[in-house]
Model the fold of this input.
Amino acid sequence: MANKFEITAVKGREILDCRSYPTLQVDVWVNDAVLGRANVPCGRSTGTNEAYELRDGGKRYSGFGVRKAVDNINRIIAPEVVGEDVRNQRKLDQLMIELDGTENKAKLGANAILGVSLAIAQAAASSLGISLYKYIDVNAHILPVPVLDLIEGGKLAASELDFQEHQVIPVGAKSFSEAIRMGMEVYYELGNILAEKWGKHSLNVGVEGGYTPPGMKDPREAFDAELLAIQKLGYEDEFVLSLDCAASHFYIRETGKYVFMGKEITRKELMDFYKELVSSYPLQSIEDPLQEEDFDGFAELARTLNIQIIGDDLFVTNINRLRKGVEKGAANALLFKVNQIGSLSEALDAAQFAFRNSYGVQVSERSGQTEDTWLADLAVGLNAGQIKTGVARSERTSKYNRLLQIEEELGSAAKYAGREFRQPF
Ligand code: PGA
Ligand code: ZN
Done:
């Protein structure tokens, strides 16, 4: 008879993400009785240095199929992992990394490896009879602030805004559930304000459920509308603003300039614009303010702006790039996206390295998301203090709904990160 924690089967399959593109779902069975299942997310606004996402090419699903990755799971990874103890997360991740043998998981696919890695963690937690967040850390208790992407631009929307996400954070709420309620009230109110001033097509939403006001080009107009909604509800002391600029996506490599609000501007002009934003708005966090190789620019902004500066495309949840960032003082927070690196243990290494160097950690979705909820458990398991997963539609709200369950499960032990979201304790 198999031991209680022995992996007895691993099975990958092709499913759809929220944009109806194919992605992977992986089942890991323990002792033929307990199932751990995980879905893999996919990015659109991806960093150049992310681990390799294996797609089939050809005609099927316009080349986006993942049958090769499914095959790699079922024929190459499964035989190696079956028979192992499901609690040996790090050893099993290492085994898959070695089986792949490339720097960026190009052979088996980071999507294939990550799917198995996450399903192993889920299966281990289930076989121990505990929630995933508790399996990650027995001391998990901090509920993150939700970073709500209320107005969308860049690659994630058909709007004319160059910055990708114009976010609000309910830092003054007393609990996570209160934060969600206040955040959604602002979302509804903002809808009314935008429809009145920018037309009803504003209510078409981008990939993450945020509004897309036609004709709006200036991020200050997005902030003004958000602040108006916040003020109308009497919440001006409870919210701060934040941004994901995703600047690599409006950077012109050939000229070293940025195309912003219809003009080519220099790096210095863009940096001055951030200074102006920080002095005129309650802006507390900026993600990817500059293109993904500008470590020195990220360092200068971290030194001078005195707010949170997050590296997403800059760090790609890769400890080597984060190490370089810490040496240079580039940014002061890590965007944590497990599929950028392709295994749970490597992503956890990056988070731990960030914490040890007093960097913040924002746990993040991808634009191509599924109904799976492990992201919520990781945010609490890391005591990260911040999560971003869009604002509306079930692939986003499923994470918030899971966090509401966790808050209830933790009861009086739960602590909302609130204003201390950068270094919660
Ligand atoms: P992505 O976008 O998931 O498409 O990469 C989100 C982000 O840039 O943070
Ligand atoms: Zn980003």
Residues 244, 246, 287-288, 312 surround zinc ion (ligand 2) (CB under 6 Å). The chain has two domains: 7-129, 142-420.
